[in-house]
Write a sequence for this structure.
């Protein structure tokens, strides 16, 4: 019998998730039936949607999320012992896969990453990379020479968006929450300008960096920063609304009508919110994004960084650390 551990969310979060909102539960993995296989987790992802989706899910629930693991026992010939798989089994060290269908695609054997690190399948070559690729290219429709602004620029999605924008010949300005992140964006990733939104006069810094205004905005954060950026958008500018992490710790029933509406109206902005699963149905277009991103990474046109926390007991810390901005690049846990 294998003893397994999983994180159960006991109650809805109030503000920043608390350690006590989770309980680590130990249990015995069930015996495998035909078609089933067990997985030992190696890499577990921590993502903002865990926070954003929490209020809509009845508690208690098992904390979901993407993970990469190896098959330890199998009664399914398509998933032999030792193969490496990608699942949405979440924060657990062992799990049994009984059903391949999941909410974002299916459980599958990890494709050949051509020598790149496995954990990229949780970041640049996983859901965040696909989000960056389609969310930017299909909604912002960038043209060479245009000015693109990215908020949350040093994170999993934002760092990829900014580099895709450079590949497409745009001038790229990123906002991030520390001087180290700003250095990384400018010196290593090739952003034309990066701005620490916590210390800069954001409006002035953006005017200096984008004297001709902003054509495209890829928004990961929302809030005051977004209001300042909308003020400097050009007529017919395009906004890809990917996330609004600055609001996730608020109670959704207290959201107010946005005072951004006059800016959207008079600048005639196209603002489009999206959720990445839209590019899975009716056709699964992930291979298109993953192929392009893999090539760019191998050609050195896109650089990646993983922010690695070690230990199953540290997943909560990695999660709240990511929400607080401790990560540069993709936040992952090695278990
Ligand atoms: N629409 C979709 O389908 C998807 C949306 N998303 C969204 O994209 C965004 C980025 O996700 P992801 O790349 O995985 O996460 P990141 O790797 O960017 O990590 C989150 C980052 O958010 C920043 N942050 C936290 N609080 C604030 C705040 N109040 N104001 C500004 N920045 C803040 C922090 O960076 P800093 O130090 O710069 O503050 C932190 O590092 C999230 O909003 C997420 O919900 C992600 C995937 C799919
Ligand atoms: C259940 C799988 C969900 C993956 C898509 C996440 C969309 C994220 C939205 C905001 O962060």
């Amino acid at each position: 019998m294998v003893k397994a551990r999983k994180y159960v969310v006991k109650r809805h979060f109030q503000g920043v998730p608390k350690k006590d909102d989770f309980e680590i539960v130990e249990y015995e993995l069930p015996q495998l039936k035909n078609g089933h296989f067990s997985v030992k987790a190696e890499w577990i992802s921590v993502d903002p949607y865990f926070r954003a989706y929490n209020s809509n899910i009845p508690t208690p629930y098992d904390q979901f999320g993407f993970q990469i693991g190896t098959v330890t026992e199998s009664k399914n010939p398509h998933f032999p012992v030792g193969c490496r798989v990608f699942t949405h089994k979440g924060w657990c060290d062992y799990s049994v896969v009984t059903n391949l269908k999941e909410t974002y695609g299916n459980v599958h054997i990890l494709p050949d990453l051509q020598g790149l690190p496995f954990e990229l399948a949780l970041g640049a070559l996983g859901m965040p990379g696909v989000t960056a690729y389609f969310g930017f290219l299909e909604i912002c429709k960038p043209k060479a020479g245009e000015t693109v602004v990215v908020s949350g620029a040093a994170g999993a999605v934002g760092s990829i968006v900014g580099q895709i924008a450079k590949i497409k010949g745009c001038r790229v300005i990123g906002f991030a929450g520390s001087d180290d992140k700003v250095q990384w964006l400018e010196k290593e990733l090739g952003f034309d300008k990066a701005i620490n939104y916590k210390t800069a006069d954001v409006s002035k810094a953006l005017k200096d960096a984008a004297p001709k205004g902003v054509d495209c905005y890829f928004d990961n954060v929302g809030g005051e920063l977004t209001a300042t950026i909308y003020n400097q958008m050009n007529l017919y500018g395009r906004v890809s609304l990917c996330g609004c992490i600055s609001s996730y710790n608020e109670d959704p029933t207290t959201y107010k009508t946005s005072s951004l509406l006059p800016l959207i109206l008079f600048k005639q902005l196209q603002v489009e919110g999206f959720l990445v699963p839209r590019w899975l149905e009716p056709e699964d277009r992930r291979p298109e994004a993953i192929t392009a991103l893999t090539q760019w990474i191998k050609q050195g046109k896109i650089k990646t960084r993983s922010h690695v926390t070690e230990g199953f007991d540290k997943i909560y810390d990695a999660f709240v650390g990511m929400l607080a901005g401790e990560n540069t690049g993709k936040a992952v846990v090695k278990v």
Observations:
- The CA atoms of residues 305 and 329 lie 5 Å apart.
- The two ends are 20 Å apart (CA to CA).
